[in-house]
User: Which sequence fits this backbone?
C-alpha cells in the first residue's frame, strides 16, 4: 500500500503481499498498453550502479527506515552475496524468522513498478494460476479480459495439464513436478516477456486441446467489466457485489462508478470480493473506506499509520472523508483467502469497529500483513528499495493480525473457492455463503473450525478448497500484488 508523505518527496507507501523469495507454490477497462518491464539496472551499469553501490544503498535504507531495527542481522558481509536481494534477505532474516517480514523488503525496478501502479501494466498470459496437487494440473482462477490467454479461450476453471514450447515437446504437469517440483511449472511457463510463446494443453467443458499463446503487454482492468460490479437480486432483495482485483490508481474512477450505482439503487447490503487481492496503494484503500463511509464523519478514524520511534514524525491518522458516491452499508460480507493481503486487510480491519457483527469474513483466513513498505529510489540504477517501515491499525488501535484476520472476526464463515462457477455468480460457494449472511441465515462453520486449504481439495472437476496460488521465487511488481499472475 502506498501513500505520499508530504515532507518526503521521494517516499511512497505500499501495502502489498509478497516481496519474493517465498515458496514457488506458496484502469478503467482500457485496451492493451505497451509498457515492457524494464530490467534493473538501467541505464547500463555505471560506477554508481555496481553491485557494491547498490547493496550499500539498500543497507542505508534499512538502517534508517526498517520498522524492526532490533531484528536486523549484524555482521553480514555484502561480498558474500551475488545480488542485492540476496543481501537484503540476509539482513532481515531475523525479522523473517519471527514472521514479521515475509519477503516484504526487497529491491525492484522503478519503471516496472510505476507502470503497474499507474494502470496495471504487465506482460504475460494474463491469468491467475492455482496448483491442484491432487490431480497434478494447474487451474485458472481468473483470466483478464484484455490479455492473450482470454483471447485464446482460456478462462476461470480451465485446467492446464501440459506445457511445451511447441506441440512436439509438451510435458505433463505431473512430469514437470516430479522432476523439478512446483518451481518447474513457473520455469516451463517461461519469462514474462512479450513474444514468449508456449503451447498449453488445456481441459475445459469443450474437452482437451492444445492452444498456442504468446505473452504480450496488457493493461489489467482492476474491476472486471464482466463481473466486477453488479447487483445480485434474490428473494426480493438486492445485494451489491464488488470484486476489486488490485489497489491501483486506475481503480479509483471504477470504484466511484460502482458505489454510485449501489447508492442510486438503494443497496446497503454489500459483498466485497478480495479473494485474490494482494494489496497495493494506500490511497485507493482509503478511497474505498470513504466510499463505505456515507454515515461516517470527518472526526471518525479510518486507520492509523505508525513508523519506528526514530521516524515518529511520519505517523499519521486517516479520517473518513465521505464522497458524493458514498453509501452507508448496513451489512458487509468480505470474501477472502490466503491471497487476501495488505491493502485488502487494511480495509477489512478498518471497517470492523464500525460494523461489528454486521460484518463478516467469508472464505478462508487472510494472509496476515499489518505492515507496509515505503519506496526510496536510486533512480540512476532503476532501483526502488521497498522496505517495511510502518504498521497499520484501525480506530481502536487493533493491528496485530500477523496470523490473518479470521481470528479477529468472531462471526467469520468458512467457504470454498468454487472454480466451476464464474466470479460474482450467486451459485459460487463463497458468494453463496456471503448472500446467506446478508440475508440473515446462519453460518454452518467458522473459518477457524474449517479444514479449508489445499489438502481439502476435491478430486473432482469442481475445486472448492482454498487455492494454492503459484508464485515465482522472485515475483514481478504485478505478481506481488496479484499472487498467481502469469
Assistant:
Amino acid at each position: 500500500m502506498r501513500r505520499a508523505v508530504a515532507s518526503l518527496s521521494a517516499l511512497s507507501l505500499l501495502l502489498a503481499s509478497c516481496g519474493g523469495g517465498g515458496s514457488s507454490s506458496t484502469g478503467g477497462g482500457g485496451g492493451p498498453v505497451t509498457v515492457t518491464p524494464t530490467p534493473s539496472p538501467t541505464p547500463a551499469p555505471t560506477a554508481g550502479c555496481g553491485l557494491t553501490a547498490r547493496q550499500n544503498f539498500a543497507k542505508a535504507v534499512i538502517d534508517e527506515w526498517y520498522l524492526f531495527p532490533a531484528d536486523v542481522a549484524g555482521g553480514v558481509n555484502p561480498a558474500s552475496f551475488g545480488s542485492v536481494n540476496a543481501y537484503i534477505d540476509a539482513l532481515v532474516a531475523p525479522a523473517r524468522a519471527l514472521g514479521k517480514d515475509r519477503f516484504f523488503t526487497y529491491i525492484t525496478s522503478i519503471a516496472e513498478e510505476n507502470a503497474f501502479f499507474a494502470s496495471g501494466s504487465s506482460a504475460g498470459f494474463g491469468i491467475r494460476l492455482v496448483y491442484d496437487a491432487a490431480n497434478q494440473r494447474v487451474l485458472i482462477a481468473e483470466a483478464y479480459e484484455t490479455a492473450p490467454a482470454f483471447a485464446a479461450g482460456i478462462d476461470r476453471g480451465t485446467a492446464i495439464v501440459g506445457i511445451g514450447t511447441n506441440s512436439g515437446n509438451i510435458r505433463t504437469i505431473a512430469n514437470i513436478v516430479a522432476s523439478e517440483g512446483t518451481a518447474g511449472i513457473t520455469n516451463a511457463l517461461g519469462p514474462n516477456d512479450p513474444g514468449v510463446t508456449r503451447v498449453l494443453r488445456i481441459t475445459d467443458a469443450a474437452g482437451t486441446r492444445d492452444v498456442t499463446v504468446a505473452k504480450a503487454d496488457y493493461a489489467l482492468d482492476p474491476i472486471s467489466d464482466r463481473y466486477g460490479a453488479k447487483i445480485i437480486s434474490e428473494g426480493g432483495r438486492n445485494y451489491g457485489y464488488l470484486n476489486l482485483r488490485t489497489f491501483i490508481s486506475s481503480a479509483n474512477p471504477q470504484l466511484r462508478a460502482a458505489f454510485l450505482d449501489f447508492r442510486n439503487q438503494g443497496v446497503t447490503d454489500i459483498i466485497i470480493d478480495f479473494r485474490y487481492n494482494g494489496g497495493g496503494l494506500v490511497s485507493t484503500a482509503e478511497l474505498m473506506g470513504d466510499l463505505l463511509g456515507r454515515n461516517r464523519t470527518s472526526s471518525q478514524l479510518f486507520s492509523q499509520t505508525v513508523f519506528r520511534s526514530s521516524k515518529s514524525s511520519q505517523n499519521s491518522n486517516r479520517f473518513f472523508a465521505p464522497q458524493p458516491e458514498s453509501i452507508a452499508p448496513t451489512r458487509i460480507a468480505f470474501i477472502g483467502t490466503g491471497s487476501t493481503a495488505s491493502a485488502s486487510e487494511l480495509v477489512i480491519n478498518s471497517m470492523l469497529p464500525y460494523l461489528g457483527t454486521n460484518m463478516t469474513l467469508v472464505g478462508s483466513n487472510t494472509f496476515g500483513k499489518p505492515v507496509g513498505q515505503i519506496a526510496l529510489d536510486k533512480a540512476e540504477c532503476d532501483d526502488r528499495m521497498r522496505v517495511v517501515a510502518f504498521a497499520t491499525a484501525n480506530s481502536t488501535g487493533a493491528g496485530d493480525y500477523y496470523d490473518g484476520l479470521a481470528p479477529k472476526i468472531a462471526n467469520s464463515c468458512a467457504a470454498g473457492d468454487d472454480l466451476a462457477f464464474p466470479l460474482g455468480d450467486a451459485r459460487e460457494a463463497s458468494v453463496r455463503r456471503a448472500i446467506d449472511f446478508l440475508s440473515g441465515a446462519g453460518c454452518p462453520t467458522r473459518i477457524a473450525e474449517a479444514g479449508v486449504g489445499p489438502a481439502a481439495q476435491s478430486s473432482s472437476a469442481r475445486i472448492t478448497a482454498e487455492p494454492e496460488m503459484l508464485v515465482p521465487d522472485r515475483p514481478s511488481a504485478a505478481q506481488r500484488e496479484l499472487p498467481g499472475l502469469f
Remarks:
- Residues 357 and 411 are 7 Å apart (CA to CA).
- The longest strand covers residues 383-393.
- Confidence is low (pLDDT under 50) at residues 1-11, 18-43, 452-465.
